[in-house]
Amino acid sequence: MVMESAEISGRVVVAEEFGGAELERIGAEGDENRRSKRTVKDADGLWPVLCPGRADLDDPWINPMADGAPSLTLGCRRVLVCVAEIDLLRDRGRLYYDKLKQSGWDGEAEFMETEGEDHVFFLFKPHSSKAEEF
Q1: What are phi and psi of 41, to 5 degrees?
Q2: Which of 39, 50, 77, 78 has its CA 20 to 30 A from that of 107?
Q3: Where does the Alpha/beta hydrolase fold-3 domain lie (predicted)?
Q4: What is the DSSP string of 65-109?
Q5: Confidence class of residue 23 from pLDDT cuts 50, 70 and 90?
């Protein structure tokens, strides 16, 4: 059986890795007292490996909210954006959610934040109550 086409009805964005230029640090990224074990340097250092040849941290592949990036409107009807409270990049996830809702996209977006947890906590503690709840 060959499928002619498929329709994606929803998208889940979990522990996103959106970047952004150093001059535009937001939220916890610029907070020296943050509780996250990750650093801005850790997060920024992944991009040359994940997206070789991209110009900088405001390339739309890395920062979909950057000036000049394509529209955030999506081809699906629903999106769930999931972040962890003490994740260094939590505020970028929230920014993505806010910008998506403001984009003119007519779908339904939800935002979920897991309290007291860091980036990809569900991978490091898969049997914890919060991971199971997630």
Answers
A1: -60, -40
A2: 50
A3: 38-122
A4: TSTTPPP---SSSEEEEEEETT-TTHHHHHHHHHHHHHTT--SEE
A5: very low
Domain ranges for the chain, please list them.
10-133
108 has which bridge partners?
Answer: 78
Q: Could you write out the three-class secondary structure of 11-66?
A: EEEECCCCCCCHHHCCHHHHCCCCCCCCCHHHHHHHHHHHCCCCCCCCCCCCCCCC
Contacts of 62 (CB under 8 A, 6+ apart): 18, 19, 20, 47, 51, 54, 56
Cα–Cα–Cα angle for 61, 58, 11, nearest 5°?
40
Q: Are the beta carbons of 46 and 17 closer than 8 angstroms? A: yes
Neighbouring residues of 70: CB distance < 8 A, sequence distance ≥ 6? 60, 64
Q: Is 127 strand, coil or helix?
A: coil
Residue 4 tokens read as 């002619």
May I ask the CATH class of domain 10-133?
A: alpha beta
